[in-house]
Amino acid sequence: MQRIRLEWMTNQIACLTLNKPERGNALNETLMKEFSDYLQQLASNPNLRALLIQSTGKHFCTGADIHWLKRSLNFSTEENILDARLLERLLQQLNEFPVPVLMIAKGAVFGGALGLLSCADYVLALKDTRFSFSEALLGLVPAIISPYVARAIGLRQARRYMLTAEVFDVQQAIELGLVHQQASESNLDELRDNWIKLIQKTAPHASRKIKSMLTRLSTQDGLHNEQQTNIQLMSETRTSSEGQMGLRAFLEKRPPPWS
């Protein structure tokens, strides 16, 4: 089964669907590679006007896949660096995607999934969606997503939510700037279609130039340079004694020693 499904809503509007509902559409190396490959393919299409990213099942994305986390317990620092680079490449592609990107959030949006939302141009969320920067609960650090999140919600708010790992709702996500609009099951399609119609009314080349301009603004303060440090930080944290204890406690469904 394809973990990422590509469909065309029109000949100019593409839709990528996270399609691993039995695992909460959680991130692992296979899903991220498929996701990244599709983004590369779509970015080279000169006729593309907009990209919709959604999910099947109950959740948009619950963060890191539990089986992937279990395997990572035995990863070397070098293997963890390769894993971190997969996520960084995916986020960079989303952040620098040449046309507008809409994401639809629902269910649980935890950990690395918040990095995905932070790279979108417009985010709709169903009213029961819950969000959390959950890494600190596992003894980990949201290193790779942190620059994108800080640019989306501001460093001040990132401090609170990353340090507490608290769960927050759609209204809080809207106030933070992580989500643009709340949707219900009854009006989701209408809100999605309205956004697409607005994009289609804009001039294609102007739209791409605006995206390029905004990408330059978001990266001119050294985003790519700081990510090399964050990749190393993520790897070191995963292989640290605290990171190992936290992951084992999570996998064994027991409280970590610091809880």
Describe the structure.
- The strands form 2 sheets. The chain has a 6-stranded mixed beta sheet, with helices on both faces. A two-stranded parallel sheet has the order 5-7.
- The protein is α/β, with parallel strands linked by helices and 259 residues long.
- Helix 1 links the parallel strand 2 and strand 3.
- Helices cover 50% and strands 14% of the residues.
- It starts with a strand and ends in an 8-residue tail after the last helix.
- The protein is globular, with a radius of gyration of 18 Å.
- The longest helix is centred in the first third of the chain and has 19 residues.
- Helix 1 packs parallel to helix 3 and helix 3 runs antiparallel to helix 10.
- It folds into 2 domains: 195 residues, 2-enoyl-CoA Hydratase, Chain A, domain 1 (Alpha-Beta Complex); 50 residues.
- It is built from 11 helices and 8 strands.
Produce a short descriptive summary.
Belongs to the enoyl-CoA hydratase/isomerase family. With about 260 residues, this protein is an alpha/beta fold.
